[in-house]
Amino acid sequence: MSVAAPAPAASADPPANPVSARPGSRPWRAHLTVALIALALAVYVTSGLWRDPYRHVLADNVGDQAWFEWLLGYGVYMLGNGSDPYFTHMMNAPLGVNLAANTSITVYTVLFAPLTHLAGPQVTFVTILTLNLAGSAFAWYLFFRRWLAVSPFAAGLAGMFCGFAPGFVAHANGHLNWSAGWVAPFVLWRVMKLREEGRWLRNGLLLGLALAIGFSVAPEGLFYVAIASGIFIGVWSCARAVRHEALAALGTVVKALGVAAVVAGALLAYPLYMHFAGPQTFSGTGFNQRYFVEDVAAYFSYASRSVAALFGLGSDLGPNATEETSFFGVPMMILMVVAFVILWKRADPGRRATLRAVGVTGLAFMILSWGPRFNWGGAETPIPLPYAGLAYLPLFDSALPLRFALALVGVFGILLAFLVDKIPTFPKNRKITIAGALAVSLVPILPLPLRIQERSAEPDFIANGTWQQYVSENGVLTALPFALNVHADGQRWQAYTMARGGAQFRIPDGYFLGPMTTGEAGKKEMGRIGAPPQATDWLFTRAALYGYVPRLTNADRDRARSDFAYWGVEAVFLADEITGSDHKTLFRQAVLTAATDLLGEPERVDDVLLWRIRPGVDPVDQ
């Protein structure tokens, strides 16, 4: 997440009312202009989804969109049934899923539950995604106006950069947590207020509340904000020019932090317990920390959804299109170095303390983003890096190193705001040069709309409630293939049912993070993506992804009977249309062949093929 903006030094302390807010001025006009531009850009980026939110899906991350739509549907179910917001049995029957150990976006699921119930998780998803992008740009604009005391134009330009930087546009491919870039300035605003004399109780309370909200939306990002704040404040406080200010504020800050810890601890006690010690918890994730690292060359490259990519300058140095977390391009990297030098030369000792802290924080996060080994041009070298010593520590073991690069967005935003604000003080020739450099740096990274693809519609069998004739209330029903990130239809259709209210069904499997095996109580296991596959669900996954159908035997049917009993499945169905990820075709005919060989001939019910599962009966004799 983005780095802390500078705490004001004595010689650079922003006034309570910035100089631009003179009597008679109308700051709301600037606020409204920035807000409208941010909203327009956000709608442009997400326009593919808005054209048909029910049939369009993000082509670069079908699985994560299905996950967050599921959470939004579960939010309606949770409020209607008084269910646990941090653990559910609706997915991964019979074991359930620890939502606290996943990204549960609880504030969003509750706040937008009325919209989800009325319009469906599909509409709520694109609404939150759009507001995340627009809100991030606007929140950074307000933060820069208040804490850097720069002009509205400088703050607005820097805010737009932060809200629509390549890394955050990339994460808009399915991530309602990471696209919430507003969490950083929202929390940092409260951190910057901690030094106010006489207000330690109020500021501590508000920071504790901000931490609880931030945790419920983007806990990994909040972890990065905490690290960045610690590095920044530590480096800034050690500067000779401001050391006396830091010491004078120490007592106030410590008291405020104590209050914040108590408030946040009380609000987050249960989710934190569930995250670290609850059922179905795990260590690490199912993602390889040596693969999800930022290639150093990626900092000098362009993202796949940038203007530069239209001219063949896009790069494939990211692990996937959602994790292109830096991709600033050569001009921007050079401009940031030049900007730092220019600002340093013009700064007084107090402002230099701020710039030094910003620079050290940015450099630390850049190095962390490179992961355990140095990577260049798509190849890993044997050169070890500091993250190798952090990778097994708590919290770090669950982080993906390349996401530390997102902190550079905040660092660069600060430098951009300072630089643009100083342009009027430069000689004419330098003004033209810097304006040109800004254009060359910013235009290539302007975002393109997110890629979309068609997805299969919800079958009438589900939408009309026909399924209730074949499955008991809260019984287990599954689409074929079983829900997974690469074929998530069954998970989506369950989400839509939960959002409507009324009778519900549970599903086996699903796309989530969970323990490597069954997650026995008191046993901490490594994490994995999805449920540990049984022979039967893997049979259908292979058929769907690869078109592979083995010759089935009575032993396979015996195992299927055992697997269905384990899951408690009462019926399975195959829709007329099934969706894969990234325009990949699923082999529906292979799934049908495997199901018929294993379960016998299906019956046609509405617009699906249905197989009833009766306990104790051989699948072919159903």
Keywords for this entry:
alpha+beta, four-stranded mixed beta sheet, 12 strands
What can you tell me about this protein's structure?
- There is one protein chain.
- With 622 residues, this protein is an alpha+beta fold.
- The chain has helices at residues 27-45, 47-51, 62-81, 106-111, 113-119, 121-147, 152-163, 166-171, 183-192, 200-217, 219-238, 243-277, 307-310, 330-346, 349-369, 407-422, 428-442, 460-463, 489-500, 535-546, 554-567, 588-599; strands spanning 56-58, 87-88, 97-98, 373-376, 379-384, 452-454, 476-479, 513-515, 527-529, 569-575, 603-605, 608-612.
- It has 22 helices and twelve strands.
- The N and C termini lie far apart (53 Å).
- The strands form five sheets. It has a four-stranded mixed beta sheet. Strands 1-6 form a two-stranded antiparallel sheet.
- β4 and β5 form a beta hairpin.
- It has two domains: 120-445, no CATH class; 456-621, no CATH class.
